[in-house]
Amino acid sequence: MSPPLWLTADFLYEGLDHYADVINERRPGFVYGRYGNPTHVALHHVLASLEGGEAAWSFASGMAAIHTALTELLREGDHLVAQHTIYGGTFALVKDVFPRYGIEATFVEAEAPAVEEAIGPKTRAVLVETLANATFRVSDVQGIANVCAERGIALVVDNTVATPYLFRPLELEGVELVVHSTSKYINGHSDVIGGAAVGSRSRIDSIRSLCLEQGTTAGAFEAWLALRGVQTLPLRMERQCATALTLARALAGHPNVASVGYSGLPDHPDHRRAAALFGGTGFGAMLSIDVVGGYQAAARLCDALRVARVGSSFGGLRTEICHPATTSHRQLSPDERAGAGIGDGLLRVAVGAEDSDDLVDDFLQALEKA
User: Fold this and answer.
1) Digit-coded pLDDT (tens) for 70-104
2) How large is the angle between the packed helices 62-73 and 201-214, nearest 10 degrees?
């Protein structure tokens, strides 16, 4: 009922030929912790099943998953089209690190026409997030997948925020890979750093080979924690999505809130797209609020919260709030943040599993002090 945790890093063999056969994949077996063990295999089976892929591989972090997935697809001289409003760490990887490899990138809105216009003769991949961190605009994944399928370009979708509970990108023709920070909703308990990539068996085999050379495989204990946590994914997401919608409704129209970024609200510009893409399952467990008065007002709100707390991540059972401009998206220049819709008054709210009335009351009392 409970998959065991294999902590062993080394494995024993009947003799030299047996060891050589296993490491060269002529016989089944395990080699070394960096190559994976039965705990990793169990997690990979679950993740592949959840996302509808043929295979999966787990990494030491979400950034390791994104880096390895993209560097497996791209070579020196290639071009990447990436979503402009994207996690700050990913933005910095693409903007600052990839040019060292001779890989150039163009940042665009996650809309099919913008992506198609940015594609050039050297474009080999497109990267988008299903729900953009930290504005939570809904990407035109269907339209972009159609463009990529027509042009023969690999589409990589970061599905961390949406999770397979809401959406499975691999069901769309044109999507090559799905990546996750398993630290977030896959694990769900704020006690793991990990990542994953899911796709075809041949693509994951190539990613695995690169991962082994880079040394970015997930630890066995982290893989086991993710495997334990993912078993309650639908229970947690159902509760957290419902509470996020309740909170968004309560904050929308408040005089101290300029806008609420949550596609579950009927007047949100992406509401219809989200309803179609997510099939009525929900609209996600994260939202953004733009506080009237900028950073100082946002800081006063955060100081006054008692149920929600300022925190560094998302996807766990406690509601966490952060200021993207100074934390998760600090790598962007002021102009880049403005282009991504991340202003000085914007707060990212990751809704937990607390009582919804308690959470709403907490935000309303804090807003009075903003």
Assistant:
1) 999 999 999 999 999 999 999 999 999 999 999 99
2) 110
d(CA 315, CA 4) in angstroms, rounded, equals 24
The full DSSP string for 157-214 is EE-TTTHHHH--GGGSTTEEEEEEETTTTTT-SS----EEEEE-HHHHHHHHHHHHHH
Catalytic residue among 34, 151, 300, 318: 34
**Dihedrals φ, ψ of 349, to 5°?**
-115, 115
CA distance 21 to 251: 61
Q: CB of 122 within 8 A of CB of 168?
A: no
Q: Is the pTM of this model over 0.90?
A: yes
At 337, list the tokens.
């943040």
Q: Which of 87, 165, 185, 262 is catalytic?
A: 87
Is 162:105 a contact under the CB 8 Å cutoff?
Answer: no
